[in-house]
Amino acid sequence: MSMMGWTEWAEEHEALRDAVVETAMAIKNTASPEQYKHASAILHKAIDTLTKFEAEYDEPRNKCEPDTVSHPGETLAEVIRERDLYPGVLAARMMGAFSCCHICSLLAGKANITSALAQALEKELDIPADFWLERQRLYDKGRAKQEAEHA
Questions:
Q1: Does CATH place domain 72-150 in 1.10.260.40?
Q2: Is 129 a residue whose pLDDT tops 70?
Q3: Which pLDDT score, from 0 to 100, does residue 127 have?
């Protein structure tokens, strides 16, 4: 079973709530008072369970942070490997804006993603600059957190 995305989960959750309400209305119109009372208790429990699940599902999304974040150069290494590129080829495509040495330093985790580099990567790899800048931000945040814990 694959992990359900937030949008899919929300749609399924809403459909389930609608089904519970429809079932309650159908039972109310066709059941005896005692049957309705029994079914109503079950349906209320279902709604309470859905509400509780919704709160539990939402909470980890807001609190989850990885223990470690890899350097964005690792992500770039994966991308260029998947595209059968080499650092020199990528540097050449960037029209000399960044040297092969600089790209290799980035791949080794010794150089960082700058705004200019993110823009160049977006142009050459068709991966948004914001993606690269966010990867760098998360890496920097993770490093700062590690350094604070070890200080």
A1: yes
A2: yes
A3: 93
- Residues contacting 30, CB < 8 A, separation 6+: none
More confident residue, 48 or 84: 84
Quote the tokens at residue 20: 């519970």
Residue 128 has pLDDT above 90, yes or no: yes
| Structure-block tokens of residue 110 | 């010794």
Cα separations in angstroms, 145 against 29, 134, 139, 142? 59, 16, 10, 5
pTM above 0.70, yes or no: no
Sign of the C-alpha dihedral computed for residues 138, 143, 145 and 146 taken in this order:
positive
Number of H helices, E strands in the chain: 7, 0
What the block records as the tokens of 46 is 């279902």
DSSP 35-53: HHHHHHHHHHHHHHHHHHH
Going from N- to C-terminal start, the domains of the chain cover 6-63, 72-150
